[in-house]
Design brief:
eight-stranded mixed sheet, hydrolase, Acetyl esterase/lipase, AB_hydrolase_fold, hydrolase activity, Rossmann fold
């Protein structure tokens, strides 16, 4: 493990997801402790789009493209406030409009609530591109962890339903496979922040006892052809690692243009430790990759 990251591991709170309300409070406190981003170059607006979905919109000057961005938190935790430090950095680093989605959380709102919220925001963004000051052909989807899985599901749904055009997918350590049968899922059972118990609980809450569909768990999709170009990242010490790498390889085999970056020495969500050099490089790369993806 990267030594700068490893030094922070003993400081992490030990918690599980047996009580979602308590978990949300701890997640919010952890997010609040992150260094505040520089937002002087951004116009930030909170709105509620049709479907009563809260969004926070980050507008850099002279932005031409946008990304509908879904936060992490195991489908159970997080909102536009906890995602603020990362959405703002992504907007500044990419020069793109970032539409951060406050989707409904499980277990109160299991699948497909979060997917429906994200897809509704995508549709709204495409319909209001002129108002947002963006090119409707330059709208990407993306997210971290659970949000990355939702974004991948949105891309599948948009393809299948001939929905809004998505030009790019930015999938950062996405949660894609509920089966937990990969080598990393079976062996990284107690890695920092994201353990096998938390992973199993989060999938259980998200699926709500129903069988997983490809829109909920995109790794289950039989056909990945016709999807937008993608950038997929994985963390070395993360249960999700192998499902992320496999998904990227399957996209490539289906004829989709893909960049894959496996970050050595990292663990799930470790880019939040912004004092570490590797975290700074991860955050900078997300912005640069999105800028390139929207320019294609």
């Amino acid at each position: 493990m990267d030594p700068e990251l490893e030094a922070f591991v003993p400081l992490f709170p030990r918690s599980d997801l047996t009580d979602p309300v308590t978990a949300r409070e701890g997640f919010a406190a952890l997010a609040a402790s992150a260094p505040a981003p520089d937002t002087t170059d951004l116009v930030i607006e909170d709105r509620v789009v049709p479907g009563d979905v809260p969004v926070r919109i980050y507008r850099p000057l002279q932005a031409h493209g946008a990304i509908v961005w879904l936060h992490g938190g195991g489908w159970v935790m997080g909102n536009v406030d906890t995602e603020h430090p990362w959405a703002a950095r992504l907007a500044s680093g990419s020069g793109a409009v970032v539409i951060s989605v406050g989707y409904r959380l499980a277990p109160e709102n299991p699948f497909p609530a979060a997917l429906d919220d994200g897809y509704g925001v995508l549709t709204w963004a495409a319909e209001h591109a002129a108002e947002l000051g963006i090119d409707r052909d330059r709208i990407a989807v993306g997210g971290h962890s659970a949000g990355g899985g939702i974004a991948a599901g949105m891309a599948l749904r948009a393809r299948d339903e001939q929905g809004p055009r998505i030009c790019f997918q930015l999938l950062n350590q996405p949660g894609l496979d509920d089966r937990q049968e990969t080598w990393s899922a079976r062996n990284f059972t107690d890695t920092p922040w994201w353990t096998s118990d938390r992973l199993a609980a989060s999938w259980g809450f998200y699926l709500g006892g129903r069988p997983a569909t490809p829109y909920a768990a995109p790794a289950r999709a039989a056909d990945l052809s016709g999807l937008p170009p993608a950038h997929v990242t994985s963390a070395e010490f993360c249960p999700n690692r192998d499902e992320d790498i496999t998904y990227a390889l399957r996209l490539l085999q289906a004829g989709v243009s893909v960049e894959l970056h496996q970050w050595a020495g990292t663990f799930h969500g470790s880019q939040a430790i912004v004092s570490a050099d590797v975290s700074q490089r991860q955050l900078a790369e997300l912005g640069a990759v999105l800028r390139r993806g929207l320019a294609q």
